[in-house]
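Worked example 3 (structure in, sequence out).
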C-alpha cells in the first residue's frame, strides 16, 4: 500500500493539492454565477451591457438582494446550479475515478447527485442552511462502508471563509449520529473532540477526500462573501455489506404534483419556440 492510502486509512481523509486544473473549477463557478446573472438581468438589477464590469462585491450584493426580495427565485437558481453540465462533468472526471480506485473502491458508483453550495448567513433563514454542525455523511448516504466524499472548493477557502473542519480518525469510531437535522446525521462532540477539529484550508483546484464516516462540520463564514464549494459522494458496488444490504438507497427524487405556473404554457407561447 502506498503512503496516500495508508494516510487515508489511518486518518480518514486526504488533501489533494492542485488536483484539478484551475480552469475546470473556474468553469463550474462561472456557470453557477451565470444562472443567477440571468435573473439579475431579468429583474433589472443590471443591464446586460454592464456585465463585463461587474465585480465580485457587486455580484454578492445582488445575490443578497435577491434573497431578500425574491426567495423563490433565489431558491430556484440554487436548484438549477445543482444541474450544471460542468458540475456533473467534474464529478465524473477520470482523475476522480482513478483516485477512488486507488483508495480501494473497486467499482465506484455515484451515491448522491453532486451538490454545489454557496454558503453565507445572508443567504439562509436557518443556521443549518449555511453552517452545518458536526455530522457524518454515511447516515444520509447509507451506502457501502468504504463510501467517500470529495469536497472541492470553487474559490480559495480559508478559515475566515468557513473552511471545512474535520475530526481526524473519527471514521474508525463507527456511526455516531444521534439525530437527523435537515437530512444530516448529526453528532454530539465531546469537549476534547471539539478541540481536535482541524480546519482544512484549500485553494481552488485542491480537493479533500474523506471517509463517509469522518465527522466534519462547516467553519463559520465571517466574511462578506459566499463560500462556493461542491461535494461529490461515491459508493463501491463491490463492497460486500453493500451487496448484502441489497444496495440500500435512501434518497427520493420525484416531481411535485401541482402546476407551478398556472395556465402555462399557451399555444402561443409554444409557437414562438417552434416557429
Ligand atoms: O460544506 C459544508 O460546510 C457542509 C457540508 C457538508 O459537510 C456535507 O455536505 O456533508
Amino acid at each position: 500500500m502506498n503512503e496516500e492510502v495508508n494516510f487515508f486509512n489511518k486518518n480518514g481523509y486526504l488533501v489533494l493539492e492542485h488536483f484539478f486544473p484551475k480552469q475546470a473549477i473556474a468553469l463550474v463557478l462561472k456557470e453557477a454565477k451565470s444562472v443567477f446573472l440571468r435573473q439579475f438581468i431579468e429583474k433589472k438589477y443590471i443591464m446586460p451591457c454592464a456585465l463585463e464590469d461587474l465585480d465580485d462585491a457587486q455580484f454578492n450584493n445582488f445575490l443578497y438582494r435577491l434573497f431578500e426580495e425574491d426567495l423563490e427565485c433565489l431558491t430556484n437558481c440554487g436548484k438549477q446550479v445543482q444541474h450544471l453540465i460542468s458540475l456533473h462533468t467534474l464529478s465524473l472526471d477520470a482523475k476522480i475515478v482513478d483516485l477512488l480506485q486507488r483508495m480501494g473502491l473497486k467499482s465506484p458508483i455515484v451515491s448522491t447527485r453532486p451538490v454545489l453550495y454557496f454558503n453565507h448567513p445572508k443567504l439562509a433563514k436557518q443556521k443549518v442552511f449555511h453552517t452545518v454542525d458536526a455530522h457524518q455523511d454515511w447516515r444520509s448516504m447509507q451506502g457501502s462502508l468504504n463510501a467517500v466524499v470529495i469536497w472541492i472548493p470553487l474559490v480559495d477557502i480559508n478559515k475566515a471563509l468557513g473552511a471545512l473542519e474535520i475530526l481526524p480518525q473519527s471514521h474508525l469510531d463507527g456511526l455516531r449520529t444521534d439525530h437527523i437535522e435537515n437530512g444530516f446525521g448529526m453528532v454530539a462532540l465531546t469537549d476534547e473532540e471539539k478541540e481536535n477539529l482541524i480546519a482544512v484550508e484549500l485553494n481552488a483546484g485542491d480537493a479533500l477526500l474523506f471517509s463517509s464516516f469522518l465527522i466534519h462540520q462547516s467553519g463559520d463564514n465571517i466574511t462578506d462573501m459566499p463560500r462556493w464549494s461542491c461535494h461529490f459522494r461515491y459508493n463501491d458496488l463491490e463492497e460486500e455489506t453493500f451487496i448484502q444490504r441489497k444496495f440500500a438507497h435512501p434518497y427520493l427524487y420525484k416531481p411535485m404534483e401541482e402546476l407551478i405556473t398556472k395556465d402555462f404554457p399557451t399555444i402561443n407561447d409554444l409557437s414562438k419556440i417552434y416557429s
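Notes: The chain has one domain: 3-261. The CA atoms of residues 162 and 266 lie 47 Å apart.
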